[in-house]
Write a structure and sequence with these properties.
Helices cover 41% and strands 8% of the residues. By secondary structure, it is of the alpha+beta class. Helix 3 (48-61) crosses helix 5 (105-111). The radius of gyration is 42 Å and the shape is flat. Bound molecules: zinc ion (2 copies). One of its GO terms (molecular function) is zinc ion binding.
């Protein structure tokens, strides 16, 4: 019941506090009024939803066979099962009657031996009278904020900003089921160009020109290695130059 109420007011819950309370109050006021109007049309002594359940029980009671002991206690055969019904205690061994307050099919078949009126055997909370009593009180209409009395108290201030210890987090916390953040941009869909033959669609490792060069044997690979080591030494010298530059600037 609490959860269904929460679902009903879920939109109002996203509003600021005053608007939220006002929205909920108005929703409740309308609901009470609707329920008051609704129950005026009911002629039965039992509420319609409960009547639906009762008619289902009446249908099932057609296949039940009740035998009386003469003191309002019954043995009810329902298919292969047998239940005992006590009309004085308002109980059935299937326990549905005790738990819900609505007569079960076994009890219906027992009650039908005396009377066709079931409403005397249904819990009083399901009566239309109880429903009317629930909605007897209605909410009073409320003026808009401009009609509210002015308070002589000081107006409340917004709370001070409290700085929490530690560096504030930049990354949001991910759920356990979420993927970790991607650190590389995906290259799917980008065109690649070979460095050797300048063709589009493969890189230099997959170059068809490689096939002829690998057949020449280890000499070319050695050459390749030499060229890469050359490149490495080149970058090294560049970084050295940078470092020396920096040191000179520091000295200045
Ligand atoms: Zn029963
Ligand atoms: Zn190529």
């Amino acid at each position: 019941m609490c959860e269904s109420f929460n679902k009903w007011i879920v939109e109002a819950r996203f509003l600021p506090i005053l608007f939220m309370l006002e929205t909920i109050r108005r929703m409740v006021m309308v609901r009470i009024q609707e329920n008051r109007d609704k129950c005026e049309k009911w002629d039965d002594p039992i509420c319609p939803n409960i009547n639906k359940k009762l008619s289902k029980a009446i249908d099932v009671s057609g296949i039940c066979h009740a035998v009386s002991n003469g003191n309002n206690c019954f043995e009810v055969q329902h298919g292969s099962q047998r239940f005992t019904v006590d009309l004085n205690q308002m109980t059935c061994r299937c326990r549905y009657w005790q738990l819900s307050g609505i007569v079960c099919a076994h009890a219906v078949s027992a009650i039908h031996q005396h009377t066709n009126q079931l409403h005397g055997y249904v819990a009083s909370c399901y009566s239309v009278e109880a429903f009317k009593r629930t909605y007897a009180h209605c909410l009073q209409p409320v003026e808009g904020p401009q009609g509210w009395p002015e308070s002589d108290k000081r107006k409340p201030l917004a709370p001070r900003y409290v700085k929490m210890p530690g560096r504030p987090r930049k990354e949001r916390k991910r759920e356990g089921t979420e993927k970790p953040k991607a650190t590389k941009v995906s290259r799917v869909g980008t065109l690649i160009r070979c460095r050797k033959c300048k063709c589009i669609g493969h890189n230099k490792t997959a170059c068809p020109g490689n096939a002829s060069s690998t057949s020449n044997g280890p000499a070319t690979t050695g050459q390749n290695a030499a060229s890469t080591s050359n490149a490495r030494s080149f970058t090294k010298s560049r970084s050295n130059a940078k470092a020396s530059k920096m040191s000179t600037s520091k000295e200045n």
